Amino acid sequence: MTPTTFRIKSFGCQMNVYDGERMAELLSEHGMAPASDGAEPDLVVLNTCHIREKAAEKAYSDVGRLRREDGSTPLVALAGCVAQAEGAEAHRRSGLIDIVVGPQAYHRLPEMVTAAAAGARPVDTAMPAISKFDALPARRRSGPAAFLTVQEGCDKFCTYCVVPYTRGAETSRPAADIVAEAHALVDGGAREITLLGQNVNAWADGALGLAGLVRALAKIDGLERIRFTTSHPADMDDELIAAFAEVPKLMPYLHLPVQSGSDSILKAMNRSHSVDSYLRTIDRARAARPDIAISGDFIVGFPGETEADFEATLSIVDAVRYAAAYSFKYSPRPGTPAATMESQIPASVMDHRLQRLQARLAEHSLAFNCACIGRDTSILVERSGRRPGQMIGKSPWLQSTFVETTAPIGTMLDVHVTEALPNSLGATALRQAEAA
Ligand code: SAH
Ligand code: SF4
Ligand code: F3S
Fold this sequence. Notes:
CATH superfamily of the largest domain: tm_1862 like domain
Radius of gyration: 22 Å
CATH topology of the largest domain: pyruvate-formate lyase- activating enzyme
Number of helices: 13
Bound molecules: S-adenosyl-L-homocysteine, iron/sulfur cluster, FE3-S4 cluster
Oligomer: single chain
Number of domains: 3
Strand content: 15-25%
Distance between the termini: 47 Å
Largest sheet: 6 strands, parallel
Number of strands: 21
């Protein structure tokens, strides 16, 4: 039976969220419709993440849960980075999986669905030279804050990381395609666009770098805010840093993962930056845009990490005073060099270090939020809150901000910050900013 309804569940990073939206648009273009809430979809796409063991294992336990009460199952497509990493092996691990489709092949999803409905078990984990983007339908509708993939893949090969294997080599989309997609998103309701790439600041189109792309996008009427993520510390050039000072639409937020505060661990991780070069980059960013919020990623318990190495990580946290951060226990990944390194760290040590790191990070993010009290700023209203009359939007520094207002979703609202919580702000509405 040919499926007519689908549901897509995306896990992992923002790029998977973006890919999930593009798959939904593609399936809709091919006559399928999203299943309504509570209804059983004919097709389930699990758009998976391979970055840590827990994330990857979750993919299979989620597949197991798709069996319906009467014993029947929907058509199941395993997409995303687990699909890329496992390929045909996924079929062997679970008889419930009908389709295996990698992140560079999902433009072929409709024909794979047709084949699977006829009893085949198609696998496509190719990384074709011709970009999937050319085969996808144009964007039509968008929420107020949209993602736009501009760069994919990674050539950095950090020794712990699967991304270079699951997403392939670094590639940049052409500037003209990106500008066209941004226009379509703005016409479809977007006021803010976050440019995505595994190493977004490695984006280039000929002589044009990411800073030039940001400047080009800033000319789009109706687009109020631009962000980009994730930047690599080794690729933060002066032009990009200058953009924070010179392009008002570029929001004062820089996600710049450091992973560790110890040079010997950074070297073992093959990070291609040092503690000192990283701190100098932060200084340059703050000189350009003094209020810039810095966020980071951290791994504790990388093989060989000593107590002194870990304390160096706490020191860099204090030096940078992160506004936000994501921290993880090291997870050995099959096929990566770090997985077979000696002196893997015991789980109990990792647990303890993670707790200490997170406590320190929480102090700094609360301090950053507290420093916002009393500021007048603007938020982009994105959704309604739990309390009646309450709306939630993002500040320029990416804090979720709660406000009582009748302003609808999509409004740029001027607010006065009155309250700081560990992960959010409270504010009162001033007046509605110019409706664009
Ligand atoms: N391209 C980005 C993000 C990569 S994945 C970068 O260069 O930073 C997001 C985060 O997951 C990484 O920054 C890292 O902190 C974490 N991560 C990646 N591999 C991991 C592993 N094997 N174990 C634990 N955390 C990992
Ligand atoms: Fe992974 Fe390193 Fe590439 Fe980031 S830069 S995606 S952590 S290999
Ligand atoms: Fe996960 Fe793949 Fe993103 S491994 S973090 S979904 S690039």
